[in-house]
Structures are given as structure tokens and as C-alpha cells.
Amino acid sequence: MSVQERKERERADRERLIVATARELAEQQGWDAVTTRRLAERIEYSQPVLYSHFRGKREIVGAVALLGAAEMATTLRTASSAADGPRARVTALARSYLGFAERNPAVYDAMFRLDGGLVFAAEDTPEPLKDAFAAMLESLGEAAGNSVHPALFTEVFWAALHGLATLTRAGRLPPGDAEKRVELLVSRLAMM
Amino acid sequence: MSVQERKERERADRERLIVATARELAEQQGWDAVTTRRLAERIEYSQPVLYSHFRGKREIVGAVALLGAAEMATTLRTASSAADGPRARVTALARSYLGFAERNPAVYDAMFRLDGGLVFAAEDTPEPLKDAFAAMLESLGEAAGNSVHPALFTEVFWAALHGLATLTRAGRLPPGDAEKRVELLVSRLAMM
DNA sequence: TCCTGGATTCTAGCGCCGCTAGAGAACAGG
DNA sequence: CCTGTTCTCTAGCGGCGCTAGAATCCAGGA
Lengths: 192, 192
Known about the structure:
The structure is a homodimer.
Chain A: H1 2-29, H2 36-43, H3 47-53, H4 57-81, H5 86-103, H6 105-112, H7 127-140, H8 150-169, H9 178-189
Helix pairs in contact in A: 1-2, 1-4, 2-3, 4-5, 4-6, 4-7, 5-8, 7-8, 8-9
Chain A binds a DNA duplex through residues 3, 7, 35-37, 45-52, 56-57.
């Protein structure tokens, strides 16, 4: 049944197109501008086609989040693998995390600020999300110190980075001292 | 002109009613449920009345945020003033901050997650926001350590608390170890 | 080559949203 | 009791997420 295979392939292509277009539109004009009508127009299909791929807008956000998580994981691993020593790895991870958030604000929002209907911190958490956390843990675990569980340390470090990323971008923190804040965070939290 | 005074008083009362009702509705059913129609119905006026007090929904969110900031400032000051010594004050501040965020999620969102059209970290930042930051600085400044500016330290500590608050509530962090995370954060960040 | 039946896609529309123009009611001051 | 202003409401605009049912397409068989 080569016909059916082709149809499935085309369907998968179109699904990727939807997700990529949603991401693109969100990065260009923010998630508020990602409406089902505009999205449908951009992919040159009618609105109901979206609903044959996803249950609703929320699931599209979730799909962008999964894509972003995979991308973030490789970004973090690339950055920390280029650093020498535990301390440098922690700094590299922090910088590349914040850099990713700054360069891809819409994807970051899809992952951590919006509701994409994804399950976090549980057994049935999707693989890309688990892997992004694992990527952080790989670099941070060795800086947890003796009496602290690496996962707990990673959670706290991650939360601090997340706070810096969101507050900075929302204009809640003065934009100038970003690098100083990273240095302070790393020097105090990391034990080595 | 007693008549005019009465009218101004009644207008101010109604404005407070709008803000309180918006807050109440948001805490009960989330900000998505706070629509201008529902809000108008609850205060027993028609929709356009809202627009004679506020430019739009965003400004109503901003008003709730200001109210919440003042409340948070007194909450934080009360908690830290009951603690003995710098270290205990930092712990008390962290716990009361997270407690406030947990007890008043909608107000917290209005302050730090939603766009209420408020200016942060600038000269024309509204007084309640400045004061809430000042309340944090009062307890945290003495734990900054020698070579770190108290304001910078407060920013980083605040960002970490904000990350913990938002990630926990969004289900991004396992709910069980919240207290352990606070302890780790305080013990590593605070210098004394 | 032409049917045909199922899969696919579209048009049209539902109830809701934030917001506003203009009609109408209310009321203070003469 | 008028009257002019000030306030409030009704009604409606365009856009939202989402969906029922009509229209179209097309693979597979006659």
C-alpha cells in the first residue's frame, strides 16, 4: 500500500509545517498573534485542518514546547561539553540556558510559561522534557556538593535560572546587570 | 460642593469594588475567567462602566497587582520581623514569599506573570512595587556578603524564589520537596 | 474510461471575547 | 418644574477557539 504510506508521510509533513509555522509566528509576533485563523492562512489550509492534527490550540503549543525542549537539550550539552572543569561547565550551562531563553522567547514560553497540556516531573512526562532536565543534571550534578541530592540541586538551580530568564524578559529586573547576576548565582550555588 | 464630593467618593468606592471583584473572581476561577462581561455582571453594572474607570482589562490587572504588592510587602515585613538574626530573617522571608504566592496565585500572577501595563525597575515604578522590593531588600541585604551589592543580591534571591514559585505551581517541579529546596537556596545564597 | 464510496477539506456559523458609539435616563442647579 | 450636563445602558463591531455538515477529491474496481 504505497498510496497509504505517501498519505501518512504527507500528513506528517503537514503536521511539522503546522508546528514550525506556529513557532515562527510566535517568535515574530508573540503567542497572542498565533490564532487558529492566522495559522491556517499561513499553512494555506482551512482552520479545521488544524483540528485534524491537534485537539486544539493548547496541543499546538505543547508540540512547539517538545520541539524546543529537544533543541534546548542539545544546546545545553554543546555548551557545557566545550567547557573545562565542573565550575566552567556550570557557568557555561547557565549562560547557554539564559541565551536560549533570550534567543527563543516564544519557544521558552511554550515550554515553561504557557499551558501546553504537558505533564512535567512525572513518569509519563514526554521524553524530550525529561532529556532537557537530564542535560541540566549532567552539568550541575557534580556541583551539588556532598550532602545534597543532585536532582534537588538541579531543580533549585533551574528555578533560579528560570526566575532570571522570565523576570529579565518581562522588564522586572534591570537589564544591565544580567551577567553579574549569573556570576553571583553560580559562585554561591555551585560547590566545588 | 458636597454633592460633587459624594460623587467622587462613590466613584472611588466603585473602583475599589471593581478591583476587589476582579481579584476575587481571578482567585476563584483563574484570570481566564475574568472577562469584562462577567466582571460587569458581578458588580451589577454594565460593561462600559469598567471603561470609565480603566482603559481596559490590562489596567484592571495592574490595579490588582498594585494592591497585591502592598499586601505582600506587609506580609514579608511581618514575617521577617518575627525572626531573630539575619539567617532566620532570610529563611522567614523566603517562606513567607512562597506562602504568599501559594495562597494568592491570581494576585501573584497579576504582579509577576501577566502584563498589567506597570513599569518595573525604573524611576516611575509605582510606589507599592518599589516598596515590595524594599521589603525584600531589608531582610536580604544583610545576607549579601561583603563584595556583593545588596540590591544585586536581592534581585538574584528574588529571581530564585520567583522561579520556585512559578515552576512549583505550574507542576514543573515535584511538589513534595518544596521545603528542602528553600533550605538549600537559603543555605547556599545567604552569607553570614 | 467511467463510477462510486470513503476519506479529506471547506464553508459557514456558534457562543464567546475586548471594546465602543450613540441612545436614553438621571439628576443638580436655576 | 424645566434644562443641560453627566452618567449609564443597549446594541453592535471585529476577532477568538472550535465544530457540524456540505462539498470535493481520489483510489480502486467495473
